[in-house]
Amino acid sequence: MMFMPSSALLQSLVWTDYRLAVVFTVLLPLVLLVWALVAQAEVIQQLLVIYWKVSSLLAITVYLMIAGLPFSFLTAAMARVMMPISLWFWADLNEEIREQPFSWLKLIFTAWRWALTFYCGAGVLFQLPFLRCGFARTAFASDSCQVWLEAPKLFRQSFHAGFTPGFLGFWAILALIIYILTLSYFIFFKLGRQGRSALNQ
Predict the structure, then answer these.
(1) pTM over 0.85
(2) What is the domain range of residue 80?
């Protein structure tokens, strides 16, 4: 039987996870992107732009959770899997970054990339017991699943108080459809041609 922490401990862990997500998936890559633009580090810029495109699934997930859609638990796990992949997949960009001379930008970018990878890996393991929330309404209605919706609901109250959850959920579903279509096009049409080369996009 899988261990499930007490409700108070679970709430604390979930909120800690959201805080870490803001730091590792939003604030640090945003600072690094601005730094790379100022330093004209084109390779790091390109990799971070790819990261932001892929990580948009995490933002979509927040709005799906605002709307109370169970499959948001599945998109949350998928986002944690795809974000590290987007940073390590491109062989040509990785090689160019390795060959660059030492700089504080390169050092901090590399440290962040490893930190994000470990964070996302630990996050996937943490979320595994809650994937059931995405498959059954009864499980979704449980306290252990609903605790994951607290932060998105607070986000809506703070930034989108004038919009209903249903309205935000509609646009989130539309964004998810576009995301899936774009990802499918890349996998089935572009990946075979360009392989792991981002420079041939």
Answers:
(1) yes
(2) 7-194
Report the first-to-last Cα separation within the chain, whole angstroms.
47
DSSP alpha helices (H): ranges in the chain? Answer: 7-21, 28-39, 42-66, 72-88, 91-99, 104-127, 137-140, 143-146, 150-159, 165-185, 191-194
- At residue 160, does pLDDT exceed 80? yes
On the 0-12 / 13-18 / 19+ scale of CB atoms within 10 A, 199 is: exposed
Count of domains observed in the chain: 1
Overall average pLDDT of the 181-200 stretch? 85
Residue 41 is assigned to a structural domain of this protein? yes
Residues 116, 27 contacting (CB under 8 angstroms)? no
Distances (CA, A) of 168 to 11, 156, 162, 192: 25, 9, 10, 36
Tokens at 118, concatenated: 């470990």
CB atoms within 10 A of CB 176: 20
Eight-class DSSP state of 198: S
Please give the Cα distance from 18 to 88 (Å, whole number).
23
